[in-house]
Amino acid sequence: MPWHKRLWESGPYGWNQALTRPQVLVPFFVVAATLPPLLQYIENNSAWTGAEFWIRILTTCAMYACLAVSLNLVVGYAGLLNLGFIAFFAIGSYAYALVASDQLHQHLPLWSSLITVIAVTLGFALLVGIPSLRLRGDYLAIVTLAFGLIMRELTIDLDRPPVLAGHQFGPSDFNLTGGTAGIHAVDPLRLPSWMPLIHGAAFQSRTYYWIFLGFLAIIIFCLLRWRGSRVGRAWVAVREDELAARAMGVNTFKYRLLAFCTSAVMAGIVGMIDAAYTHNTFPDNFNVQETVLVFIMVVLGGLGSIPGAIVGATLVTILPFVLQQLVLYKYVVFSLVLIVLMIFRPQGLLGTVSIRPRATMGGTIELLTAESAIAASELPTVTDREAADLESASGAIVAMEPEP
Amino acid sequence: MTDRRRVLELRGLTHRFGGLKAVDGLQVDIDEGEIVSLVGPNGAGKTTVFNLISGVLKATAGSIRLLGRELVGLPAHRITHHGVARTFQNIRVFPQLTVRENILLGTHHWTRSGMLGSAIFWPGTMRAERAAEAEVHTAIDLFRERLEPRLEDPAYSLSYANRRRTEIARALAARPQLLLLDEPAAGMNPYERIEIAGLIRSMRDRGLTIFLIEHHMPLVMEISDRVIVMDHGVKIAEGLPKEVHSNPRVVEAYLGRRAASA
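Predict the joint structure of the above. Result:
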């Protein structure tokens, strides 16, 4: 059989395998990295003037791809419905803005601020994760959703001292988050000053595309490594069948917490890069719609599929710009697309895992594969004949009908 | 006989679901290298015993000792670590994982390989992963011609019997001291049942101790060293297959009093 035919017949499972091979991913990143100069070249040699605009869109695409891939780790791999995902993006963003702007008069260098961001997001992830990951699926979704909403309220309200039971905590000039206006004039990312040639130069606005792309490459590399090793197997096992995973010696709580925290830290770092790229951070970047948007990307592309997350992020980011007339109805269009998709292809475009709930015991959102559902319905059930065979074979039974 | 190690020791094991005593004061001893079958009518509490040993349920009272170590109160994943592996009555393979990955899950508790190590190709981690891969080949030794061609297929695509084999191979990869098999021959055809019988014997010959729940009596009679009969959570008979077979209390448990006296 020719390879393309074999690939087609292997279905989404095989497509994912094929698309996550280095032979595909490396050329993909090389092509993606050459897009900005290519656009610039086209602009220089034609009447078209959209290079700057499209490079910005590509940067947004790359950022959302990072977020979608991180969310995919927690929802797609570990099966944890984390509806407060965007809060960790916000936490990373604010953590960086606080240590690299005039808000607190701190201007930490790149590596120290990166460590701060990782520590702060990890701290919040543990704070939410340790109590809530012991809960069953739906409750986890509620707790994380509430966490997302609380964090957004905090970013709005922490511009004045918190007041509790008539008591004011902190000095009157307390202003941590800048309220609805957010924090402005955030430092761009700056390379260390000891590096030769660069001497602490700030990154140009356009280079953030490559920074996002580089970070995307790093997290995809890590995810693929983990998926092929003990950690990733344990994540998928906990998602597929928590009871069996425990029986095989997997500490389910530990592995859920690992997935939750890893994904949160990834989102935090993306938030940091985004704050440096846009030079500001404010609460409206992190409302619930953003979580929904990232979820749409992941579900559209397919849960548990890295190429799917990238495709989903690209489609959801670019479509509103392509269909300018529909931009007001963005969420209506996405919702319709999702509804249609859930009816005809509940696994998403490239995914193998469906988000439809399964009514069994366990703590995760109980993802069910369409294939396994079909397979389960075809399992041989014990027929009457088989039962009779079993009973007659068990020598203890001497008569089927008790005597009157 | 006497120099054999005592692998499992259940003392006064009791479990209540609300007011119902599913298991009531059960005493069981299993020595190294034995095949012990647990039989009884439906609802006798057999699977509850397995769930108690493997830590899925927590015993209301009593003690479970594995090689002298108390297991009651330990979480399920620790119990696996101490040397208990099990299969389930309704097969629980991980459908989205390949057969290879399913079996690798068995090696989870005795390999050490972390997130950082696998991301940076840390030599120790790579060694652990290679050791786990090697274990897959040992574990499928008994099913080689059946499972080897399917190693890279996702488990949902397997036949019923192959899922059963995968599940047993997964339990073997955990290198247990004690293997709990919950109705391994359920839903199998006669040929596959014969295969299962041979399989259980060869696992014992490799030094495994096997505790087995099974409904198929000829299979139980053929392979067991000892048979324990339960009814209503209580052990009603124990002994060699032949002895149990003719025990009037066992016949009564299966059929009711009148049929037994008839």
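The domain at 24-164+173-389 of chain A is CATH 1.10.3470 (ABC transporter involved in vitamin B12 uptake, BtuC).
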